[in-house]
Automatic annotation (TrEMBL):
This is L-threonine aldolase. Homotetramer. Belongs to the threonine aldolase family. The lineage of its organism: Bacteria, Pseudomonadati, Pseudomonadota, Alphaproteobacteria, Hyphomicrobiales. Pfam families: Beta_elim_lyase. Catalyzes the cleavage of L-allo-threonine and L-threonine to glycine and acetaldehyde. Residues 3-292 form the Aromatic amino acid beta-eliminating lyase/threonine aldolase domain. Keywords: Lyase, Pyridoxal phosphate.
Length: 350
């Protein structure tokens, strides 16, 4: 079966699985005060070129929601893209972990917030208006829900707008590694040097079993997070298994190698589809997500062959489909095989 539904459907990389098994031998201190977690934190500080406060959790939803809870009070507003994962796909977790803050959707092409749209949204929420929530945070997804990547200039501009308005800036980096290798820059350049205050650093989609990191670039701003993580039920007693995963993920560039494989498969898939008759690409491929508008006949042939992928709504991305077409999302991972990509292209071409 060819499965392009999500990079969550792939298994665990062999290096990370072996690290989990190694951590399973003997005993170790509980609740994250173990050598595995210490090693992971040290590696993250080295990679990001900065002293960090690091909090490991098992899910991306927990990372995002807890990070926003550290930035935004209950009477605050979090500005994010109108199709962001925190806005549409986290079942109200950000609202719960902020104790009731409001998420405000902002427009922009391919999931990227437009600076002009952010300025307009901020203007609609003036500070001091007691009947309105107060601007508190901006959340940027890198890569976006549409598979697009902010370049460094775009990130810097949006962070500057947010900071000038007194907002903290969060990055949802569930696919941070995929965006990073696409931009060919350093982790520091794509985060705190651009103005990001707190990062949800993903590993699960890129080879881990269940491991994400909340990274606070100014440790002084992380004072509440130990308590929020515990209160929210996300402090694992056997935290060494998170630390072991994160350390193995980072060591010897394993995380970047995995992301390069996934991105290369996506690039091959996008290039092949772009040459197929009747297939249209709504925007360029970036990272490891491919969005395509397929003729209905190609979609039918693919599904008849057992290929799995998601139909995708073009709501808020512009009405792109015509009669007889299907808008789809295709995801590749470190575990995708070149033969799967080639078979998909062959079926789409008919």
């Amino acid at each position: 079966m060819m499965d392009f539904t999500s990079d969550n459907t792939s298994g665990v990389s062999e290096k990370i699985m072996q690290a989990i098994l190694k951590a399973n031998a003997g005993s170790s201190a509980a609740y994250g005060v173990d050598p595995f977690t210490a090693r992971a934190s040290a590696l993250l500080s080295e990679i990001f070129e900065k002293e960090l406060a690091v909090f490991l959790v098992a899910t991306g939803t927990a990372a995002n929601a807890l990070a926003l809870g550290a930035l935004c009070p209950p009477w605050g507003a979090v500005f994010c893209h109108a199709r962001a994962h925190i806005f549409e796909d986290e079942c109200g977790a950000p609202e719960m972990f902020t104790a009731g803050a409001k998420l405000v959707g902002v427009a922009g092409e391919a999931g990227r917030i437009a600076p002009s749209a952010l300025r307009e949204s901020l203007a609609a929420f003036p500070r001091g208006a007691v009947k309105q929530v107060q601007p508190a945070a901006l959340s940027l997804s890198q890569a976006t829900e549409a598979g697009a990547v902010y370049d460094l200039a775009e990130l810097t501009e949006l962070c500057r707008i947010a900071h000038d308005a007194g907002l903290g800036v969060h990055m949802d980096g569930a696919r941070f590694a995929n965006a990073l290798v696409e931009l060919n820059c350093s982790p520091a350049e794509m985060s705190w040097k651009a103005g990001i205050d707190i990062l949800s650093f993903g590993a699960t989609k890129n080879g881990a079993l269940a491991c994400e990191a909340i990274i606070v670039f100014d440790p002084a701003k992380a004072a509440s997070l130990p308590f929020q993580r515990k209160r929210g039920g996300h402090l694992l007693s056997k935290g060494r298994f998170l630390g072991a995963q994160m350390a193995a993920y980072l060591e010897n560039g394993h995380w970047l190698d995995n992301a390069r494989v996934a991105n290369a498969h996506a690039a091959r898939l996008a290039a092949g589809l772009a040459e197929a008759s009747g297939v249209r690409m709504p925007w360029p491929r970036q990272a490891n997500e491919v969005f395509a508008i397929l003729p209905a006949r190609a979609d039918a042939a693919l599904r008849a062959a057992g290929v799995r992928y998601y139909d995708w709504s073009d709501r808020d991305f512009g009405e792109m489909r015509r009669d007889g077409e299907v808008f789809v999302r295709l995801l590749t991972s470190f575990a995708t095989q070149a033969a799967e990509v080639d078979a998909f292209i062959a079926l789409a071409r008919g």
